[in-house]
Amino acid sequence: MCYRRGVFWGMFFESLEGMTDVPMPSMDIFRPYVPDVAGFIEKGDRPGQSCLCTGKIRHKGKSTLVDAYNYLKTLVPEHQWGEIKVTMISPSWYHLRYKDGQAFPKDVYPTDEAYFEDVAKAFQAELDILYDAGVRNIQIDDPLFACKFERTGTSAFIGLLPEYSSSLSLSA
Length: 172
What we know:
- The structure is a single chain.
- The protein is an alpha+beta fold.
- It has one domain.
- The chain has helices spanning 35-42, 66-73, 93-96, 112-132, 154-167, and strands at 17-23, 49-58, 86-89, 138-141.
- The strands form two sheets. It has a two-stranded antiparallel sheet with strand order 1-2. Strands 3-4 form a two-stranded parallel ribbon.
- The two termini are 31 Å apart.
- 23% of the residues are buried.
């Protein structure tokens, strides 16, 4: 197996206008009960990288996943290209990890709904680019809302379910 990415879900958010890569972010921005964050805390560690919204989110028109897909096509016969699976990050990943008020500046997006509207547009643009490149099999990796919370913060998470659900309701 050949693995050519730094993380399994690619660099979708990092490639968007309005998103900024943050090396060694402060733990103060994270919800400590989210599973991956809780795992870091339990080990006395912290995420080495994160990505924050710093402006209006917009897709730049180039996918970070097409090159990986094209490379994988060189490894399998053409009749199997439709079986190649591309993994993408969940649209809610960088929102759910952060405490209220940390996922985006309020002067850029006044509400979660406004933030997710632009995330959904960028996600749809990415899916369109991937489809045009021939990708027919996409897996959304690590959608955090699929986990069961047993720590403080469950009610805050439950309150965000409509936004997370609608961020995945992308039309074809």
